[in-house]
Each structure stands twice: as structure tokens, then as C-alpha cells.
Amino acid sequence: MTRKQNILLSFSILLLIALFIYIIFSKHGYSDLALLKQEQRKLVQKNEQITRENLAFRIEIDRLKNDLGYIENIARQEFGMIRKDEIIFKPKNQSDRKK
Asked: Residue 10 half-sphere exposure, CB side, CA atoms within 13 Å?
């Protein structure tokens, strides 16, 4: 090979190496792509979680609108409500409860 060809080959190799480094480490390069893919996976997982929560809320809203038994159950558990014909028995103190 001639000296001119050696210089051209060396320049080409250096150019390829520089291009390779640029592709990997530049702002829009491979490392940035890997970070973006990782962020995308996290966002997809969060989106799936929010979708499940929305579905649960829709089911509860539907039950609150249409299921009288469910409404009664919530009124009893969360608000301590009772029916007209029910009587609540409460022990006098904690030691009576344990016996």
C-alpha cells in the first residue's frame, strides 16, 4: 500500500471510531436510548397500576349506585349504623370482653 492509502485508511478508521463513540455517548445516542427505554417501562407499569385502580373505582361506583346490600354494608361498617329493629350490646369494660 502506498503512503496515501495508509493515511486514508487510518483516517477512515479514526472516523469510524469517532462515529462509534458519538453514537454511544451523544445526547441522542445509545446510552440515552437505554435510559429512555427504562423510563418507558416504569411509565407503562405505572399506567397499568392506574388502570387497575380506575377499574376498581368504576366497580365500586357501580356498586354504590346499584347494590343496596353493599350500601348497607358500608353504612354498618364505616358509620356504625343499625336497622330500626336491631339492638347493640356493649360490654361494660374491656375485661368483660375477654371473659
From this structure: 7
Which residue shows C-alpha cell 358509620? 79
Instruction: Write out pLDDT tens, residues 32-64.
Output: 888 899 999 999 999 999 999 999 999 999 999
In a domain, 52, yes or no: yes
Residues 31, 58: Cα–Cα separation, whole Å: 41
What pLDDT, on the 0 to 100 scale, is given for residue 27?
76
Instruction: Tell me which residue range forms the domain holding 9.
Output: 3-84
Angstrom distance (rounded) from CA 40 to CA 34 = 10
Angle at 92 between CA 88 and CA 93, to 5 degrees: 120
Residue 91 falls within a domain, yes or no?
Answer: no
Task: Give me the amino acid identity at 78.
Answer: E
The total of structural domains in the chain comes to 1
